[in-house]
Amino acid sequence: MATVEVNKHLTKDTALSVFRTMQIIRQCEEQLAKSHQRGLVHGACHTYVGEEAIASSIFAHLRPEDVVFSTHRGHGHALAKGLHPRELIAELYGRKTGCSQGRGGSMHLFKPEIGMMGTSGIVGPCILHACGGGYTFKIQKKDNVAVACFGDGAVNNGAFHEGMNMAAIWNLPVILVCENNQFATEVAFSYSSGIPDVGRRAENYGIPGFEVDGNDVHEIFRVGGEAVERARGGGGPTLIECKTYRTRAHAEGMGDFTYRTREDVEEWKTQCPLKRFRAAAISDDLVTAAELDEIAAEVKALIAESHEFAEASEYPDGATAAKHVYFEGPHDPPPPAPPQGERQTTFVAGTLEALDHEMGNNPDIFVMGEGIGARGGNFTTTLGLYEKYGAERLCDTPICERGFVGLGCGAAMSGTRPLIDFMFIDFINDSFGEMINQIAKMQYMSSGRLKMPILLRGCIGIGHSAATHHSGSYHSVYAHIPGLRVVTPATPYDAKGLFTHALRCQDPVLFLEHRELMSIKGPVPAEPYEIPFGQAAIAREGNDVTVVALSLMLHHALDAAEKLANRGISVEVIDPRTVSPLDTDTILQSVGKTGRLLVVDEAFTPCSVASEIAARVADAGFDDLDAPIKTLNGVFTPTPYAPTLEKEIVPNPETVQQAIEDLLAE
Amino acid sequence: MAYDIVVPRLGWSMDEGTFAEWLKQDGDQVNAGDMLFILEGEKAAQEIESFDSGILRIPPQGPQPGDTVAVGQLLGYLVEEGEEPPFENISVGKATTKSSSDQESKPPQKDSNVSAGPAIRRLARDLNVDLTALQGTGPAGRITQEDVRAASKAPANLPATATPMGGKRSTSSPRARRIARELGLDPTTVTGTGRGGRVRERDIRAAAAQAGKTTAPATSSLASLSGKTIPITPIRRTIAERMLAGIHQAAPVTLTTKVNATNLVNLRVQFKAADLGSQTPSFTDLIVKLSAVALTEHPLLSAQWTENGIVVPERINVAFAVDTAAGLLAPVIEDVGAKTIRQIATDAQALIEAANASTLTAEQMRNGCFTVSNLGGFGVDAFTPIINLPQAAILGVGRIAKEPVVVDNQIVIQEVMALSLTFDHRIVDGAPAARFLDQLRSCIEQPSPWLMG
What we know:
By secondary structure, chain A is of the alpha/beta class.
């Protein structure tokens, strides 16, 4: 274990520096509260008044390349990590010069350039993100640390448990800072927790835990310093509970005395961390009153200037509202994919070749999932890679989908490329919030300064009596979410090309493999190649009717087309290959030729990709339609177990053929 | 410097609240951090903190306890010792900015109360019908397609989503309607073979093929000739549509007759001898003028069929066919009855030049009520011209040639010309059309009196 010396006791310089940070936070918050009252802050405003000692003291030990993940009460964290007050105030005023360029506001502060990786309006995920930052440093062999700051409200959330456990078992360089201000919005911690303290929970996970006076700079500085030293030196995570109090309302403009008393608030105001630090530091002869007054006056001018700057700044141009949903940086289009060739391999072997090749080239890629290590994956998705790349890059996980997906998010934000191998999509639904609230939105909220190169892959689809928790097809649900790419390959050739593209693109990708396709064989070139997203394949050309079919349904549609060809009916079959982005143009061109459209998808029809395709064609292709658009979907029901029930709820080649014939009769 | 005291927003969606009371008196010293007044929001009454210091000045006309106040509304000032507050800026009593009652009193969007579906609204827009003026005849007073069409001044040959046919509704697919437009067919006249009798693309193409007028098979799935494909220009497509419409949407009948054009030829010789330059009338110009004379006597031949009735124009505007490199064009000479033959000749010359230069405006091809098509220069005797809808008739002019003619039991040589009149039998019957043609014949045989005006 490397030793990293950290100064645990304040010198005069650090004392002045910590005091200055606290002054900046306090005065900035007071300016924001005033501006909120005057209508300059457009949305929420959660201040950190009363809690300044915590971030100011712990972050005094951090380096710019250390990363901080925070929560909705994050102004103080951003300022303590080095954000200029101008950028914070401008962000709350909704201006272009704000740290999130007007896309975030009070709860979504991003400054990745200085390691301020983001604040979140959702309580809990920052713990998982910090674990991800820690995992990145482990993979990249750096002695940086990742810090999560969260309130007492987060510790009764599953993210706390999953994050604590992952940090412990992987010995991550993570510091989990619980700012226990005793109320989760307006619900008292004494009500919502079985025990009154948080720090001692660490023992259950096998990691060091501390309970400190959150308004005492000296104490926090000491404990924080030890934690940073431990993390940098490879000693793993630390939980620090700082007992404190916010002396302003949960959010500006909210009432305060329905859940706590005036007397309590007034009592805590006497514990103001700035006042206490001032008194102690002067009496200890660490600093003089004049030095502190000078800092306060200097900060006053800084905040006044920052407010003026923010108020004078422009609002962002409304025309840019949809910018940065996806990565927009420069990237060269890949060379055209090679012809399919003669070599045959299975669907899953195609993706395994792609993964092996990319892992060989890119040391930032790591895989997480249940049984993907030595076992090689439930579907042999990682067979042989563990021996080749080791346990850190082929990382078996506990069964905590939300936890390791959230970890993947934090890892992608901080510079690695995680591949989450989730086995069945039904499992990954446990991490729905991490995917749609965090992973899908990070690039946007950070106005394109963060990248989110995370790949989540696993099975969809009904078959072999898997029953309802191993058979879902939720691509329609995820295609609804801006910021995600959703890929549904249907052939081994497409699977390898799309998988390679997914491992090279900068956006989050859900790579959904139908279980009944995993072992099918088809032509796959041996060399690496990419198939870009948003390009449908014309799987069979025809003139009389267009059939758009996804995933396994493509094969049913091709079977039906072959049978109908014998009767002189010419069916064009299109595989969108990715449902987000969706290649509407290719479908429209086909419908322009045939005048008839059938969409076949195993997923249910309400609010589905099938209904979306139908809607787009009904709009843009209206004058080309010679018949109503038809959809053939799975039945709107959970998946039953008995074979006699199961077969009733999915389209098969016969029902696809019948649907085509019905459409031709329209 | 005076600080404004304004109504803050409590919670995210508050627009207005109730002013409860001041916690300080007018003239009191207020320090930053003091509670200044109580405001009732949606959830509860809250004490509002002052972030500034100064002497509170409460305007006498300002909000009173219980008044509704808007977020951002000015309530008073914090001033310095001896400073006068600008009370004149403060409005009396209630909220001055937008309130919910203001929003409710906004006039409803035009015709949004009318009970009609989106398809009906669209039809009404297309036909320029004001839905608010209609009484619906459908269930619960809903306005139906028939109501809109009945109120419309537009002709019935617009593409329709559905029209009553034999008491049953027949529909056509969007693609069928598009192909029908391209081929100049009325889809409502075609029998559908789709589900419930829906007219499909194949039905339109079959109907067009039956009429023998389709230009080329449009889908690649049909067998096609090998050879060079000439792209269809917009002019070509327009001509195709109008020609097909002239056959499929009207009831065309062609009458032919021969006329003695000896006097007309003589007259033309005299004009040419006079060397009038661009004012020298062509045979077409002369016939245009004489047609207008006959149309004035027989106005039904210049009338137009509409849903509301047969419209007879006030002025006789005559179109004439011009053969250009791009295709057939039919510019219009306006108010021919009021123009001298020299004016007609000048107008026609300018229109022909514009046609050849492709600079004809849509305006110059609009509002014709009769067309003259002269193929005499190409050695044609007689032909069956196609009506240029919505006009009622078209006159085909053949060549003028010397022929032996029996006059008073003597064979004499005369300049003879064939006239072919195609008319729309929906508008006018055979006999009146024949009477028009007979009058035109007599005008041509004795032209001078009719050309004096």
